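For anyone still unconvinced, we reproduce a single protein record, the chain in one-letter code, the fold tokenised, and leave readers to judge:
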Amino acid sequence: MSERKRLTGLRSIHGRTFAVCVGLAAFLWLLRTMQDERQVTYVFNIELVGAEASTGLKAELLDSVARAEVTLSPWEHLKGRWMPRREPVRLRVEGLRTPSTEVPSAQLAAEIKARLGKSARVEDIQPSTLAIDVTRR
């Protein structure tokens, strides 16, 4: 075997070995990175549902955006970033009669948790209360 063929064979073996090592290191880094839970802030639009059912009243949500601090697994966070759900979170209220009403934003936690995955825990939602203005049509 000539000297040139032997060196070419060694280079290709070293190149493949190096590529396998880099690939393995990247895979192990990804596994390590995806171990711990993450605390992430999500921004959601809010839609008012059930406030105007045959009462002759018009209800308007004054704060239509909420920020939720959520603790969840990195896999759920990654899945949420790859396939985001853009529809608004629904705030269900019924029986509004007074001109101005405040509803705790904690009512949004169940829908936010269902939207983000099983591992999600909603830690905080801002604003803490959602103001609703009720007027006659």
Remarks:
- The first strand starts at residue 38 and ends at 49.
- The helical segments are 3-33, 74-82, 109-116.
